[in-house]
Amino acid sequence: MPYVNIKVTDEGVTAEQKRQLIAGTTELLVKVLNKNPSTTFVLIEEVNTDNWGIGYQSVTELRQADS
């Protein structure tokens, strides 16, 4: 019973993109590990860029610096 947690920033990931992530992740586990898709769980969490840090800065700060 695989459980996969995908975390992405909350910057406009569409429902279709999420569907593709779920299907693609499930298919990968089926092909590589021979897992049953009906017992494979994929959770997508969208994280605000203020709550995601790289080094000493939040992603929000890093993106503002790149602008």
Structural notes for this entry:
The structure is a single chain. This protein is an alpha+beta fold and 67 residues long. Helices cover 40% and strands 27% of the residues.
What can be said about this structure in brief?
This protein has 67 residues and is of the alpha+beta class.
In terms of structural class, how would the helical and strand content be classed?
alpha+beta
Distance between the termini: 43 Å
Main sheet summary: 2 strands, parallel
Write down how many β-strands occur, each being a DSSP E stretch of 2 or more residues: 4
Query: pLDDT under 50 segments (min length 5)?
Result: none
Overall spatial form = elongated
| Residues in helices, as a percent range | 40-55%
Elements, N to C (H/E): EHEEEH
Strand content: 25-35%
Notable characteristics:
67 residues; alpha+beta; two-stranded parallel ribbon; two-stranded antiparallel ribbon; 27% strand; elongated
